[in-house]
Amino acid sequence: MVKRKKAISKEQIESIAWLARIEISKKELELFSRQLNDILAYFSKIDEVNTKSIPPSYHVLDLVNVLRKDEVKPSLSEDIFQIVPQTKGKFVKAPRMA
Question: What domain range includes position 40?
Answer without folding.
Answer: 10-48
